[in-house]
Specification:
alpha/beta; 5-stranded mixed beta sheet; 7 helices
């Protein structure tokens, strides 16, 4: 049975997920935790004669590490998504294009990338979080418990002041801190993002359940209308 109503979820790297009610889930960083061991195992495999018994043993060790990383990530995502879906009837997330965000930082021969090392590190961190799988699990589990997962456009969720509504990139001068240049409101940037995601979700629902919102009528349940106006 749901204990709450609606919640916005902001995903990140420093914090895996921040909810609009202030709940924070720390990142597991499964790949990062085993990165050195994996690199060592891969290096050992590369030194063996290909297809020899020793090479096969080394390859099996690499595969075991990959499996360990994947299983730990999947279990963490399962636990986190289960908790959120049980406690909230409506879950709003940003409609992030994870594949684009984690694309190669090297670029192409015609358009080589810049700050490749830093971007490559960020790309690996994004992939390590498993945002795409997290959203898939949330979608399945909210549906299973009778709730709904709704994606909202990510534009300006990190730049909008939840206190006065002022929108400016200067509002977020660091990754962790939000400070509105108009009214002086300060808060953790991820929490601000989650609050804005929640508000964007309510705004979308208000449009979709209203006759003035055009042809979009999904979702149409009366319970969603009540939650959106709560």
């Amino acid at each position: 049975m749901h204990q709450g109503t609606a919640v916005g979820v902001d995903v990140g790297v420093a914090r895996f997920a921040t909810l609009s009610d202030g709940t924070v889930y720390a990142p597991l960083n499964s790949f990062k935790r085993h990165e050195q061991a994996l690199a060592k195992a891969q290096q050992a495999m590369s030194r063996k004669t290909k297809f020899s018994n020793n090479w096969k043993k080394a390859k099996a060790q690499v595969q075991r590490l990959h499996t360990k990383i994947a299983n730990a990530r999947r279990d963490y995502l399962h636990q986190t998504s289960t908790t959120i879906s049980k406690n909230h009837a409506l879950v709003f997330v940003e409609d992030l294009q994870v594949s684009n965000m984690s694309a190669s930082a090297a670029g192409t021969l015609d358009a080589p990338g810049t700050n490749v090392r830093a971007k490559s590190g960020l790309n690996k961190a994004i992939l390590d979080q498993g945002w795409g799988e997290f959203r898939r699990q949330l979608d399945d589990k909210t549906a299973w418990t009778g709730g709904h997962l709704i994606a909202v456009p990510p534009q300006n969720t990190s730049r909008t002041c939840p206190s006065c509504g002022h929108i400016a990139k200067e509002n977020r001068q660091t990754q962790a801190r939000f400070a509105c240049v108009a009214c002086g409101f300060e808060e953790n940037a991820d929490l601000v993002g989650a609050i804005n995601i929640l508000r964007a979700g309510h705004a979308r629902l208000a449009c979709e359940v209203s006759p003035a919102g055009g042809q979009q009528q999904e979702p149409t349940e009366a319970t969603i209308r009540e939650l959106a106006c709560a």
